[in-house]
């Protein structure tokens, strides 16, 4: 394992979470009509209710992407889809294979975009107190051109790290002491942390030939950088997976609706009912698989939230200066993962509801 490999990993994972402010703009779907209900309060068309629920979930998903996706290109594209006057049609096109989401993801992987994202990540994870040179160099690169950002990624970051280390080593008055218990803790993180990139960063800090300065840098910025990469990877992965699931759901529900309507007046009612039943069964199977996937994501997010809660507590209780930097971000990390845990449960609940609607559809077409 090499430092270059770890930095390369940092460059290949999708990037900083950040907001795109679109103040005062109401999405085009905000005034969408509700499903008509009969006097008893039940939807007049249960298949239409399923379609409406799927469409609403798609809109909610795109809104979350617009607010939280790690890639600025994807966030901007999602806002554009939400603001379209074509409503659900625009959302469906954005989610479809080769649509707006996929195009935005390709733009996010452009070399220039990734260089900018790396600079942003350094600003986010390197404190002025511990890494003033790296932080300042990243900020200058962000204010500069694409060539400036590429130069920072290629050599500027490593050079700034060397300057920061030299300053820390010369400052004997504020020199950070690394005790055996600190090394033992990093060793535990390297073997057991739920985040892959955090484990990689900890392993690098303890590599053969590593010094106390490497361990101090893990606490100073390596831990935070790895944590950011792990969260971004999680957010990107679940967004990609749900985009496919929702696009597939829209198609399956539409197929089931068409099949159910074809039963009326069919010359072969038994065959038409069987086809409609199969169509709703496909919706049910797809929904159940999605529900299980979200429950697994909830467990992963819960493990991370608990982990960062423990780290925040340890940092708060420690008087060691070494823990100060990670203590600043631990609470934020816990909050981010707790939110993902709650969102995963909400998504699992939606898919359970869609499963129930599909099973009702199967029973309905059986007659």
Roughly what is the average pLDDT, rounded to an integer?
A: 87
What is the strand content?
under 5%
The low-confidence runs, each spanning 5 or more residues with pLDDT under 50, are 1-44
Query: What is the total tally of β strands?
Result: 0
Apparent shape: elongated
Oligomer: single chain
Percentage of helical residues?
Answer: over 70%
Q: Secondary-structure element sequence?
A: HHHHHHHHHHHHH
Pairing-aware structural class of the strands and helices?
mainly alpha
In this structure, how is the largest beta sheet organized? none
C-alpha Rg, in Å?
A: 25 Å
Number of helices: 13
Plain-language structure description:
There is one protein chain. With 367 residues, the protein is mostly helical. Helix content is 77%, strand content 0%. It has helices at 3-12, 46-68, 72-83, 88-95, 100-108, 111-125, 132-143, 146-170, 180-192, 196-205, 212-263, 269-317, 324-366. The N and C termini lie far apart (63 Å).
List keywords for this structure.
77% helix, 13 helices, mainly alpha, disordered N terminus, 367 residues
Summed up:
With 367 residues, the protein is mainly alpha-helical.
Layout of helices and strands, plus pairs?
Layout: H1 3-12, H2 46-68, H3 72-83, H4 88-95, H5 100-108, H6 111-125, H7 132-143, H8 146-170, H9 180-192, H10 196-205, H11 212-263, H12 269-317, H13 324-366
Helix pairs in contact: 1-10, 2-3, 2-4, 2-11, 2-13, 3-5, 6-7, 6-8, 6-11, 7-8, 9-10, 10-11, 11-12, 11-13, 12-13
């Amino acid at each position: 394992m090499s430092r270059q490999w770890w930095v390369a990993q940092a460059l290949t994972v999708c990037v900083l979470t950040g907001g795109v402010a679109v103040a005062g703009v109401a999405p085009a779907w905000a005034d969408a009509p509700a499903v008509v209900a009969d006097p008893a309060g039940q939807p007049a068309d249960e298949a239409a209710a399923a379609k409406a629920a799927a469409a609403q979930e798609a809109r909610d998903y795109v809104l979350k992407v617009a607010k939280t996706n790690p890639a600025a290109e994807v966030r901007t594209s999602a806002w554009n889809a939400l603001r379209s006057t074509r409503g659900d049609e625009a959302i469906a096109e954005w989610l479809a294979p080769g649509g707006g989401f996929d195009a935005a993801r390709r733009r996010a992987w452009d070399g220039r975009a990734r260089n900018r994202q790396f600079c942003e990540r350094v600003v986010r994870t390197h404190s002025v107190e511990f890494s003033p040179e790296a932080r300042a160099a990243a900020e200058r690169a962000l204010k500069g051109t694409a060539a400036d950002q590429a130069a920072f990624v290629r050599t500027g970051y490593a050079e700034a790290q060397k300057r920061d280390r030299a300053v820390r080593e010369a400052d004997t008055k504020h020199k950070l002491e690394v005790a055996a218990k600190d090394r033992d803790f990093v060793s535990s993180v390297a073997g057991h942390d739920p985040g892959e990139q955090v484990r990689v960063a900890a392993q690098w800090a303890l590599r053969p030939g590593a010094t106390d300065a490497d361990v101090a840098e893990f606490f100073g910025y390596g831990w935070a950088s790895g944590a950011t990469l792990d969260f971004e990877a999680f957010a990107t992965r679940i967004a990609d997976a749900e985009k496919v699931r929702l696009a597939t759901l829209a198609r399956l529900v539409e197929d089931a609706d068409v099949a159910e309507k074809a039963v009326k007046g069919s010359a072969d009612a038994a065959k038409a009912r069987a086809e409609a039943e199969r169509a709703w069964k496909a919706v049910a199977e797809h929904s159940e698989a999605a529900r299980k996937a979200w429950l697994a994501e909830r467990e992963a997010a819960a493990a991370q939230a608990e982990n960062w809660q423990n780290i925040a507590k340890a940092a708060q209780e420690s008087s060691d200066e070494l823990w100060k930097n990670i203590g600043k971000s631990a609470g934020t990390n816990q909050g981010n993962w707790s939110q993902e845990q709650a969102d995963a449960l909400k998504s699992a609940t939606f898919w359970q509801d869609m499963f129930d609607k599909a099973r009702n559809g199967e029973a309905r077409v059986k007659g």
